[in-house]
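User: Good morning. I'm curious how zinc ion would be positioned relative to this chain. Could you predict the structure with it bound?
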Amino acid sequence: MKMNRVLQSVVLVISLLVFAGWLPESNAAAQSEQDATAQAGSSVVRLSVEPEDRAAATIGTSEARYHLFLADTPAAKGVAADFPPIKFPRPVMLDSESPTADSEFALPSFVASPPQPAFYPADVTRLVSTGKTITSAQSHPIFVNCSPAGGSCWGNPTVFLTNLGASSFIHLVDQYVGLTTVNRYTVGTSFTASVTIFAGTSGVPTLSENDILALVHSAAKIAGTSYGHVYHVFIPHGVDTCMDEGPCYSPDDPATFAFCAYHFTVRFSDIGSVYYTVQPFQDVAGCVVPQPSPNGALIDSTSSTLSHELFESITDPDINTGFRALNSGAVQGSEIGDLCGGVLFGIFPLDSKKYEIQLEYSNFYHACASTP
Ligand SMILES: [Zn+2]
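Assistant: Good morning! Here's the predicted structure, ligand included:
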């Protein structure tokens, strides 16, 4: 009885799709649903982007906001890291005539120098007092056009996320999120996706913001939305990605190559808010970490950028409300990864495996740090 009904619905759906002229895509869709069902309970699901994901990405979004991790490239100079642009408050100026200057803002007469190497970029504060942080979440890698387990095309991101989640380094965020419990940041379902990527204006295969939104929508339908899930979209070697506003990850085109990665939030009208990061191939000039490094350029560069974006997703998930440096002219508006990115790398163990990755900014130490 049940089976008959299922068959009837399948026939009905197929007829409707044939009628609508969508058969090729609907085959892919059915395939993906079978795969997803067959593998439910295992940790890897094969995705394919369905017409409804494309529709959700193009017409069903609101509150799209992102924060770029700018590359060490000439084209990054002058590029705004935030979209939509954020007007940060002017840095507090100490005015000796002001009655509050001495009591609230003046530095003590003696400040000890920190042990070197160290520097004071600026402490971070919430941009909006009610701004949210991510107190615990599953990370969900989405591996695009390269399916070996664990994302080996990018090094070992699944292993890295697991080690990071079990490390003391991740507890650097405790001071911002207000919890100290262990195992709050884990790895959930991973996804592999095969997608057709068209050449962009530079002639190189290029993913648009909409392409990525559709991928994320297809995964978030399965694994979940809101603050408990952070998706990480891994883009293969030789593929560029550009923001609608112009800046790109495009190592082949120096004129537009402005960022290494970013984190993004969006509200889909059907499934709600989703948080994700985009991880292009990091073993390229402008994004690579200094060599030699314990695991080589690919693993350590991928890991460094992935941790940068995960830390910032945790401390500023909604982009315009979370922790930012608000009292420094030079780095005004920076998030905790930006403050330490490309400046100082550390080699230290994450749950006993050593990586060379960037540090993150700690208000507790007033410095870039590798411990809580
Ligand atoms: Zn950043």
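The radius of gyration is 22 Å. The pocket of zinc ion is lined by residues 67, 69, 308, 312, 335, 337-338 (CB under 6 Å).
Let me know if you'd like a different ligand tried.
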